[in-house]
Design goal:
This is DUF1825 domain-containing protein. By secondary structure, the protein is mainly alpha-helical. The chain is 78% helix and 0% strand. The protein contains four helices and no strands.
Length: 105
């Protein structure tokens, strides 16, 4: 059975995508949020980032051909911007840390 044949993998991918889309839409209104709203948004983004890291790590560790192809595609896409997946995660984390620091100003 391939990694994409797993209902668990399919459901997690679907949830990650839907939550990301929802948070991106909410992010357009971020500047209008009060302190608690901004904090909640940041917390949700951090949770999503951690889940995505775990999701991608499963693919990296998998011996499944399609999982490896997915990882390679991500690397190739990011490579066009001069980034690695780790750099992407680091940059996302740094952005969230800056957002947190701005909350306390």
């Amino acid at each position: 059975m391939g990694i994409f044949d797993s209902e668990v993998v399919q459901e997690e991918a679907k949830q990650l995508f839907e939550e990301y889309q929802s948070l991106m839409e909410l992010g357009n209104k971020y500047g209008k949020f009060d302190y608690d709203g901004k904090k909640l948004y940041i917390d949700r983004m951090e949770e999503l980032l951690e889940r995505y890291k775990i999701f991608m790590k499963r693919f990296e560790l998998s011996e499944d051909f399609m999982a490896q192809m997915t990882v390679q595609q991500l690397k190739n896409q990011l490579g066009q911007f001069g980034m690695t997946p780790q750099q992407m995660f680091d940059q996302m984390h740094q952005t969230l840390e800056r957002m947190k620091a701005e909350l306390h100003r």
